[in-house]
Amino acid sequence: MNAAAAAPWARPTEATKPESAEPPPMGAELAPIREKLARGGRLAREDGMALYAAKDLLGLGRLARWFARRKHGRNVYYVSNGHINYSNYCTLSCAFCSFYRRKGKDRREGGYEMNLEQVFAEAEKIYAQGATEVHIVGGLHPDFPFEYYTHMLSGIRERCPKLGLKAFTAIEVYHIASLKRIGVREALAELKAAGLDSLPGGGAEILDDPLRDVICRGKETAAEWLDLHRTAHRLGLRSNATMLHGHYETPAQRVDHLLQLRGLQDETGGFLAFIPLSYHPEHNSLKVEHGPSGMEELRAYAVSRLLLDNFPHVKSYWVMLGLAVAQMALHYGASDMDGTVLQEKIYHMAGAETPQGLKAEDLHDLIAETGGVPVERDHLYRRISRGPGGPLDWKVEE
Fold this sequence. Notes:
disordered N terminus, TIM Barrel
C-alpha cells in the first residue's frame, strides 16, 4: 500500500494560500476595528472591550476567521495524541476544580494515583496507536518525590522515543521544584534533560490576583505563572497558554488577561497556541449555575484571535466545547482542533459528556466539513506525514 492509497487523513496536504490582505466589510459597529486591522494596526485594550460588547457576533466571527486565514489559509491542524492524568490527589482545593481529591482526607469517591509502571504502560498504549504527542498533567501529589517526575519523563522517552512529551502546568512545576528545594529554572532544566518537550499551559485561569484568590487560592500568582513560562521559553521549551472563562470574571479581566499573554509573547515568542477553557459548574464549590453559552464560547474565540495577534494558533478544544461548537469555533478564529485525546479525565470529571477519544479520521472529517483543510501536526506544530507501515510509520516533514 503506497502513500497515495492511504486513507485521506493519512495523506499530507498542501498548504493553502492566505486570505486577502483586506478584511471583509463590516457594519458600523465593527467598522473602526476593521479599519485598524486593514491598516495593519494592533488592537488596544479599548478595542478588546468593544469586541466583547459588540452585538454583531457574525461580523466578529468573519473578522476572526479572516485573521486566522491570513496566517494559515484554510489549514486546520490536529494531532494524534493521548492524555495521562497520573493522579488527582492534590494539596490544593481550587474552588472551580472538580478533578482533585485530598488524599486520606476526602470522603468523595474517585481519588487515584498511578505508579510509574502504570504510566509507562499507558504511554506505550498511546504510542502504539500512532500518537505523536502525550499530554501529562495531574494534581500536586503530597507524597511523590522529585524523581517520580524525572523518571516518568525519561522512562517514557526510552520506551516511546518519537513521542512528544507535553507535561505539567505552571503550578505543577513550582510544586516539583519545591520537592527538591530548587528554583524553577533548575527544575525545568532537569525536566527538559529527562525528556520534557513543551508545557501545556493550563492553570492560567484568569491572570488577576484578587480573582485568583477566590477561585484558586494557594496557586501561583499571575506574575508567577507568567514568569514560569518566560523561564521555560528562555530554556528553549515551548508552551501553550489558557484562559478559564465563564465564572466570576468580567470582560475587562479577560481583556487584561489576553494582553498580559500578548506582552509575554512579544518578549519571548515561546507560545504555540492559546486555548480558551470553559468553566464547567458540575461537582465543585463555585456558586455559578452554568458555564458559558455557545455564543459566549464563540465570542471568546473571536476576541482572543484578534487580540493575540502574535500567537500562531487558537485551539478549538473539542473535549470541552463539544463537537458542534468546536466546529463552529473554526469559523471564529480557531486554526487547530487539538487531537484524538485518548482518556481525558479532568473535564470529564467536571461533567463533560464528549467522547473519551476520537479517531484521526473523525477529526479529518469534522475539519473538512467546515471547509478547512486537515493538516496533521506534532506537539511543536511541525507537519506529519504517514507511510504505509502502520501506526508508527510517521515522520516530521522537513
